[in-house]
Every structure is written in C-alpha cells, then in structure tokens.
Design goal:
The chain has helices at residues 23-32, 119-128, 176-196, 213-227, 231-235, 252-257, 260-265, 270-287, 296-304, 323-338; strands at 2-8, 14-19, 38-50, 56-75, 80-87, 99-104, 110-114, 137-143, 146-152, 157-164, 204-209, 240-244, 310-314, 343-347. By secondary structure, it is an alpha+beta fold. Strand 13 (310-314), helix 10 and strand 14 (343-347) form a beta-alpha-beta unit. The radius of gyration is 25 Å and the shape is flat. The chain starts with a strand and ends in a 27-residue tail after the last strand. 32% of the residues are buried.
Length: 374
C-alpha cells in the first residue's frame, strides 16, 4: 500500500489517500472501511444523454464520486472490493443522494475520510504501508489429484492456485495409467509453483500431504528442474520443507503451521509470531487454566487487574457496525498497550480455521499474567 497523503484534525477526524499495490492491500482496505465513512474514487457510471434531435442514448463515463459508505462487499479469493453508498458531493453526471457502487482496484488511488480515526485503524495503515510486511511463507497442500498453492501473509492466507485432476487407481499388473496421470498432475503443480511463488521474497515453501505424496512430488520437482535447467527451483531447493498433513484440502494449512517442526523453521517469518502466540495460549489453557482467559468480560477483568501479557483479537471485531461495540474493543487494546501488554496480534477470519464445533464465537482475545484469551 502506498500512502499519498493524510490530513488529520485535533478531534481525530480527517482523511487519507492511498493506492493499493498488491492483493493483500485490498484486505487491508476492507478492514479500513466502515459504514458511514466517506469514500472518494474514480469510477464508471452509465449516463443517459439526449441529442439535439431528442433521441435518448446511454454512455459509460469515467468520473470521480464521493459516497457515504452503506455496504461493503469483499471477495477474498479474487481480492475484489465493491463499496455501495449514496453520492454526497455534486457531480455533473450523478445527482446528490443517488446510489452508486465503486469498485476499488489495484494501482488506483482512493481517498477515505472518517469522523474519527482510532488507534486500530491508524496501526493498520502503518502496517499496510510498511514494505517489510509481505508474504514470506508459501505452502503447497496436496494429496493425489488435489493441490492448493497458498501464500501466507501477515494478515491472511491467499489461495493462488487450486489444481484438481482425476487419478486412475492402480491395477494389478498395470500401473501405467496411474503413473501417467500422477506425472501430469505433478507437472501442473510445478508450473503453479513457478508461476505464483516469488522466491525473492519467500523464505520457506511448505510441501504438505498425507502419505508419501510430498516425497514423490519433491523428487519429481527436483529431477524435472535438473532436466529443464529450472534455475529458480534449483537455486531455492533449500527453502522447501516437507511436512505431514491429514489431507490436501486448504484447511489442513492450520494443522501444518502448528507443527513444531514447522514453527522452528518459520522462526524468522511474519506468520511465526501469530502461530506461537496461539500455541502458547492453548498450552497455558491446558496446563494453567487460571492464567488463560477468553471472552470479552473475563479479558476486561484481567485488564483491570493489570494482568494481560498478550492480547489476541480477530479483525472482524473492529469492523462491527455498532460503534459502541467497536469502541469497546479499541479501548481494550489501547489499555493493554498502556499497561505494558507485550503483543497485539490480529487473527483474520481467513486464517482462523479453529472455530468451536458448537458454533460459538471463534475469536480469541488472549491476555494474562502469563496469557489470556477470549
């Protein structure tokens, strides 16, 4: 994300102009936007025109509109953001009060104005504009005939490719069809890795599967890299780490990231601190339950007792439409920081796949004289 300008007043009202430069910036933008904000951006509007002869036609015209945000729709897979609202500034093509939907796009600036910028939103802007925050972990979660190629960023897990193909079963005395289909599948996964993983940024590539699929794929990958002189693969061979997963489905990524062997390898990556904090919470909850708390009321009591060391909160709580609820969580975070809390980590809904089976709230707010969560 590129910050073009920012203007704030004494009462924390003001506006910022930003340019999203990569897919994850759209996720940050989604979290910055709230109902009631003012959004100004270039857009396309279908406008009716009347000629001198009286005939009526319509043209698609590019113009710049300012709308009061009423609805926000984010497609996490395509990283597309659509914002609907009412036009609040005079425009020659769109009447005041008319509804319009602005589609925010990469490399196109927008201006966001709020009546009050809280510490959480300002921190997100700082994080989004920091070039050090990038996807430095990649993962290939696979089983025979199914593979997901993902990038793990500080804020979300991005699915870059899904490869799915039918693999015939082995037949007694004849495995030719099975082996040919498997080789074709491995070739597609290899091409996906080359296309979607930037080895200049990525420090670790996790290859996870049940059984021996990961070993067979890596053997195929490196042999093919030698034959085809794929320097990108050969020069980064040391970044590949083979680990076990229960399946080739995307949800198995959470299981993989919690593997102790993986967390040791990810020690210097952005995702590591998040994984470690959640693991520490579960461990403390099991071994010292009196020092691990979850639920807003319990966490607030721990904060009042100055007992919070680490606080974990899901991003969605800061997008709550009720201003009082949103302010409550912002106030909690600010208080934890002022009282010496060591970490504030945000768990996104895309990475959080550990929701309770009973359907209860699956967010975590962790604090404590050791650690607390809720």
């Amino acid at each position: 994300m590129k910050l073009i300008s920012k203007e704030f007043e004494k009462d924390n009202a003001g506006q910022v102009t930003l340019v999203p430069e990569e897919a994850e910036d759209m996720w940050h933008t989604y979290n910055l936007l709230q109902i009631g904000d003012s959004l100004r951006a270039a857009t396309i509007r279908k406008v009716q025109t009347e000629s001198a002869t009286g005939s009526v036609g319509s043209n698609r015209i590019r113009t710049t509109l300012t709308i009061c945000v009423e609805n926000i729709d984010f497609d996490s897979q395509a990283c597309q953001l659509r914002v609907k609202g009412i036009n609040i500034q005079e425009n020659q093509y769109v009447k005041m009060g008319a509804y319009h939907t602005i589609e925010l796009e990469l490399n196109r600036k927008f201006t966001l104005a709020k009546k009050q910028w809280d510490s959480i939103v300002l921190e997100r802007i700082e994080q989004a504009c920091d070039p050090a925050f990038s996807a430095d972990v990649a993962a290939v979660i696979m089983q025979e005939g199914l593979a997901h190629i993902c990038l793990v960023t500080p804020s979300m897990t991005l699915l870059r490719a899904k490869i799915e193909t039918s693999i015939p079963r082995k037949r007694r005395g004849n495995c030719t069809q099975h082996e040919k289909a498997l080789e074709k599948f491995y070739e597609q996964v290899m091409q996906g890795i080359i296309r979607h993983i930037n080895f200049e940024v990525v420090k670790v590539v996790l290859v996870a599967s049940p059984g021996f699929v990961r070993e067979q794929f890596c053997e195929f990958l490196f042999l093919r890299a030698v034959k085809q002189d794929l320097k990108t693969i050969l020069e980064n061979r040391g970044k590949f780490l083979q680990v076990h997963s229960s399946s080739g489905h995307k949800l198995s990524l959470t299981e993989v990231l919690c593997d102790p062997a993986v967390t040791a390898r990810l020690a210097d990556t952005k995702a590591a601190s998040e994984i470690k904090a959640l693991g520490d919470f579960y461990k403390m909850l099991q071994n010292e339950p009196d020092r691990a708390f979850y639920g807003i009321k319990h966490v607030e009591r721990a904060n009042n007792a100055l007992a919070i060391d680490t606080l974990l909160v899901t991003d969605e709580l800061f997008r709550h439409q009720d201003v009082a609820t949103r302010t409550r969580y912002v106030r909690l975070v600010d208080s934890v920081k002022e009282n010496g809390g060591t970490d504030f980590l945000k768990f996104t809904r895309l990475r959080r796949t550990t929701e309770p089976a009973d359907g209860s709230c699956g967010h975590f707010e962790i604090s404590g004289s050791g650690s607390v969560g809720g």
